[in-house]
Design goal:
The chain is an alpha+beta fold and 329 residues long. Among the domains are: 1-80; 225-304, Orthogonal Bundle (Arc Repressor Mutant, subunit A), CATH 1.10.10. Helices cover 52% and strands 16% of the residues. It contains twelve helices and ten strands. The strands form three sheets. A four-stranded antiparallel beta sheet has the order 2-6-4-5, sandwiched between helices. A three-stranded antiparallel beta sheet has the order 1-7-3. The protein has a three-stranded antiparallel beta sheet with strand order 8-10-9. β9 and β10 (288-291) form a beta hairpin.
Amino acid sequence: MRELRQKLARLKQRSAKARDAVARQRELILRLEEEQRDTSVAEDFLHAMTETLRVYEDAESCFIDELKLVAPEEWRLNYAEKLEAPPANKGNKLLSSLPFTDLTLMQPFLERVGLNSRSRLQITNRILKTVHFLESGMVSVVAVTGGGRSRTQVGLIGREGMTGIPIVFGSMRSPFDLEVEVEGQGQCIATKKLLELMEQSPSIRTALVDYVQTLWLQFAQTAAANAHGTIEQRLARLLLVVEERLESDEIKLTHEQLATMLAVRRAGVTVALQRLEACGLINRERGNVTIADHVGLQAAAQRWRGDPNPRPQPSLRSMASRGGSGGRK
């Protein structure tokens, strides 16, 4: 146990140093912006430093997960988060939509967990160990290409949904990174156990398949906006989608986060935010954007917004489980 504690202490120290370096680099970029100087080189360094920090934090998180298995009492006393259940009307909407019998079936295997900012819930091409049902906060779905050099946000998940997208297609490997953008909490379940429950209950499978269909529609809308929309249109659309996921007009995202989510330079986001603010559509403070004119922001997003919560067409499995034929009578 002493060796485990020492190793974890070293991992935490390494992560802390990396976080300090990232914080200093962000301050440098802010000073450069205030002096109206080019920030591109500093942003490239920040990107590399952030990737290093992500690796360190992933290693720390994995070690704590291992500690939970080999020394559960140590984990419970020192690392388990003390979380309270949210009010009934503020829980995960997908779980709340399940029939009572299905929820009763799942409940013994659900564990309430904290969702820390920047933590990765899934990593591209890695085996999925757990599936999370969010109760608060927000998670980005990120497509990783170019050997990990390019990261593009393609979707957002709030308390309306879940992670573990590929399991409904029978795969245990994640095609995306899933990263916490806004911290919160949720409930998680072991992937293998959820697959067993999906086999036991067709209605659980149907609910998850229908949700994933709406998520894929969101991916398609994001791809269309990224291909054809201006930065201002894409930013307006993103702010509206984030507002719906967080259920709040107040959006606590930094310029850096918005730039990463839009796959553009931070300077481009700064200019777009300034223009939206000049039009009276948003109000800005450091690390915080408030939507001031919802209708005006919708107009700025124009046709790239799409339906933020599209309703899926009933799947064949869904119609079969509900006793429908899908044809006219």
